[in-house]
Amino acid sequence: MESQLSAAFFFRIFVRLTLCLMITAILIPVSLFNPYDAEASQESLYVKVLVARVRQAPNTDSPILFRARRGDPVVVDQKQGEWYHIKHPDGREGWAHQALFIATAQDKGDTTDRDYYLKDVSLQVFSSEKEAIAFQLDDFHPPETFVLKGERPRVVCDFLNTRVLDSVGNRIESNGALVKDVRVAPYGGGVPRVRVVLDLLPGRNYVIDQTFFKKENRYVVTIITAAP
Predict the structure, then answer these.
(1) Taking a C-beta distance cutoff of 8 angstroms, is the pair 46, 73 a contact?
(2) CATH number assigned to the domain with residue range 116-226, chosen from the 4 options 3.90.480.20, 3.40.50.300, 2.60.40.3500, 2.10.109.10
C-alpha cells in the first residue's frame, strides 16, 4: 500500500513538471516574436517641409509641443492612421502628420520645396451666434492658428510656405454679426507666408473650433459665441 502511494505521489510530480516545461516551451517563442517590440517598429525619417508642427495628440486641434525644421532626423515609433509619433534627436517627442516627412535627408538651406496655395477664403453665416471662415487650399497644409483676446479680439491663421492667388484679394467682405473683417496679407521672399486675420466683434466671449477636411483640402475656423 505504501509503495502504491509513493508511486502516485511521484507520478503527480512528474505530471506537474511536464506541464511546466510545456508552458515554458510555448511562452518562449511568443516573447521572441512580440509584435510590440519597439526596436522592430522604429523607422528613421527626415523633415521635408520648412517647419513641421509636432503636436500633443494625432490631430490638428491638439496643442503644438514644438517645431522641427527641414532636414531634422526623427525616429517614428508609433503610427495612428496618417499620423506619426516621432522622437527628435534632442529628446522631444510628439505627433506629426506623415506628409511632413521623407525617407532621405534634404539640405536645410534648400528652399526649393514646393509652395502651397491658398485658393479661396469665404465667410459662412449659420446664425447670429455661429459663423465660419473656410479656406480652400491645394493640398493638406493646415495653418498655425491662435487667438488674440482683449479690446480687439482676433483669430490669426498663419499659412507657412504658402502663396495666395490674386483672385482672393486682400480683404473678404463680411456680412456676419461676429466677424467684422477678414484681412489677407501675403508675404514674399525666401519663405512665402500668408497671414489671415479675422477681426471679431468686441465685448463677447467666443469658442473657436478648427477642422481640416483632408479630402477637400479645406480648412474651416468656426466662431461661436459663448455664455459669459
Answers:
(1) yes
(2) 2.60.40.3500
DSSP 1-58: -HHHHHHHHHHHHHHHHHHHHHHHHHHHHHHHT-TT-HHHH-EEEEE-SSEEEEESSS
Tell me the per-residue pLDDT of 147-176, one tens digit each, with 9 for 90 and over. 898 889 999 998 888 888 888 989 887 878
Say what the pLDDT of residue 15 is: 41
How many beta carbons lie within 10 A of that of residue 81, not counting itself?
Answer: 9
Contacts of 88 (CB under 8 A, 6+ apart): 54, 66, 68, 72, 74
The backbone torsions φ and ψ at residue 49, rounded to the nearest 5 degrees and listed phi first, read -100, 170
> What are the helix (H) ranges across the chain?
2-32, 38-41
What CATH number has the domain spanning 38-102? Answer: 2.30.30.40
- pLDDT score of 113: 56
User: What is the amino acid identity at position 93?
Assistant: E
pTM for this one?
A: 0.56
Within 8 A by CB and 6+ apart from 196, the residues are: 118, 121, 133, 135, 143, 156, 157, 159, 182, 183, 184, 185
